[in-house]
Description:
Blueprint: E1 2-6, H1 14-24, E2 31-36, H2 39-52, E3 55-61, E4 66-71
Parallel strand pairs: 1-2
Antiparallel strand pairs: 2-4, 3-4
Amino acid sequence: MDYQLNLTKYLCPLPIVMTKRAMMELAVGDSLTLDMNHSTSMRDIRQLCEQLNYSLTLLENSDKHFKLRIQK
């Protein structure tokens, strides 16, 4: 199943906290698509995925918008 999380309205540390909480709810094979607009949060989420051994894919990267997919 693919879940969506829009983080564009939030500043650090809320995007990382909300993402981690959502990641803990994923079943094996599920994915979480994140919409975000802060590169700092993107770096933090990359580190979190590495620590928890989740797959991370960059779907969109423009000046002010990032779309990421996390898969368990």
